[in-house]
Write a structure and sequence with these properties.
Largest sheet: 5 strands, parallel
Helix content: 55-70%
Low-confidence stretches: none
CATH topology of the largest domain: Rossmann fold
CATH architecture of the largest domain: 3-Layer(aba) Sandwich
Order of helices and strands: HHHHHHHEHHEHEHEEH
Number of domains: 2
Number of helices: 12
Length: 264
């Protein structure tokens, strides 16, 4: 099942981000519209609903990494069942008292704790050094998931407004063409909120950037096995705290944006 989770996420992303007249979007949207009963929907019916040929749907399924429509259909249902069960288990484990007020207060406290830890461990000297490094770079590329990239959009604008080419790329979608422009004068900013999210594909992408001579700066809550890949490591938040790390990433992004205009 773990082998198919990534492809299911890519399917969801296709529906979230592709333009409305794109064939892949029409197929992804139709698949998600049958999320509760895809197991009984035939390839022919799916193609008709998407107004796409069966051959096009089959090609899309194989592009997502599946051998056949049947293979995809079974894996799709199992993947979402696993997500549902794991989320329920996490909810029951984290909030056992089943009180809405206690749950709301606990999430509030988790956010405060993560931010407090970040304030304790993040070095302002290091952040100033990162700002200097970015200002001297020929380009700055931000790699991460959608959530992290949206947080650092303002910093991208600060870079662009001050004459530094800057790009936001989902780590799963970094194109080979862009890699041709990554060189020893480039800076790559990589965001990780949990070591379990650091995939082999992410590592391979960073290895290419490193081979091209780029300076790689990672922001992470956890120790990562590939420390030799990184020129600078910024630790923040609480290790293993998963999504609470996004609170701290927002905090760090705001600090970096303000430091960009801070005269030292």
């Amino acid at each position: 099942m773990a082998n198919y989770m990534g492809t299911v996420f890519r399917l969801i992303n296709s529906c979230n981000t592709q333009v409305a007249n794109n064939n892949d979007y029409n197929i992804a949207r139709t698949i998600l519209s049958y999320v509760n009963d895809l197991e009984i929907v035939s390839l022919e019916e799916l193609a008709n609903q998407a107004n796409i040929s069966q051959a096009s749907v089959s090609r899309f399924i194989k592009k997502m990494g599946f051998k056949s429509y049947q293979d995809f259909r079974e894996s799709f249902q199992k993947a979402f069942l696993e997500i549902k069960l794991s989320r329920k288990l996490a909810n029951v484990t984290q909030y056992p008292h089943r009180s809405v007020e206690k749950m709301v207060d606990q999430i509030h406290q988790e956010a405060i704790d993560n931010l407090t830890k970040t304030r304790e461990i993040v070095s302002t000297r290091l952040l100033l050094h990162i700002i200097k490094t970015m200002k001297e770079a020929s380009s700055v590329s931000f790699y991460g998931d959608d959530h992290a990239l949206s947080i650092f959009y303002t910093l991208q604008l600060d870079l662009l407004a001050n004459g530094t080419p800057s790009y936001l790329f989902k780590i799963t979608d970094v194109q080979g063409l862009h890699m041709q422009f990554i060189d020893q004068n480039s800076v790559v900013m990589f965001f990780n909120v949990y070591s379990g999210f650091f995939s082999s594909e992410q590592k391979q992408t960073l290895e290419v950037a490193k081979k091209n001579g780029a300076k790689i700066i990672v922001f992470t809550q956890d120790d990562l096995e590939s420390d030799d890949l990184f020129d600078l490591i910024v630790y923040y938040g609480q290790s293993k705290s998963l999504n609470t790390g996004y609170y701290s990433l927002l905090y760090i992004s705001r600090i970096l944006s303000e430091l960009f205009y801070y005269e030292t």
